Amino acid sequence: MPHYCDTAPSHPVHAPYHDHEYGFPIADEASLFERLVLEINQAGLSWLTVLNKRAAFHSAFEGFEVDRVAVYGEDERARLLADAGIIRNRLKVDAVIHNAGVIRALRESHGGFHAWLEAHHPLSHADWVRLFRRTFRFTGPEIVGEFLMSTGYLSGAHRDDCPVQSRILAAGPAWACG
Fold it and tell me: Distance (Å, rounded) from C-alpha 139 to C-alpha 98?
């Protein structure tokens, strides 16, 4: 199976994500939440499908503003489940809303989502999965692994010989810093 670094650079949709986002550390709450939402919605689908719907997700979830999404009620759920621009799966929609509430609670307990991640780093993939499953909804091994690789907490997003890897290392991802 080809590595993402082999196929993404020449693809019009995958290339920008591969070259400028995937694996780079991020600390901004909305950006971390977006990445979690996208990874949850990728389950069972192609990453290309999710990237093609990214703008619609951004609009549907109000810029991934955690405080807004955390208080979504039945009207917002119905709006999301009727929105053909996103992935209309009740379990995924419910998980996104629930997880926004969890992220709000992480502000109180840890100072925020980024601080929570930092407080638990480094963990093995299996330990991260256990932690995410205790904390969030709809977060299995693949979702957790991709979320953590995409945000710089686990290595493996890029091959060592990928030109993007040197830029990621210069950005100081958590996995490279111990």
Answer: 12
Is 56 inside any structural domain?
Answer: yes
Query: How many whole angstroms separate alpha carbon 23 and alpha carbon 175?
Result: 10
Q: Is 90 inside a domain boundary?
A: yes
- Residue tagged 């419910």 (tokens): 94
Closest C-alpha among 67, 72, 118, 65 to residue 95: 72
Q: Is residue 11 part of a domain?
A: no
CATH code of the domain containing 63? 1.10.340.30
Give the range of the structural domain holding residue 32, as residue numbers without chain letter: 21-177
pLDDT tens, residue by residue, 10-40: 999 999 999 999 999 999 999 999 999 999 9
pLDDT value for 162? 97
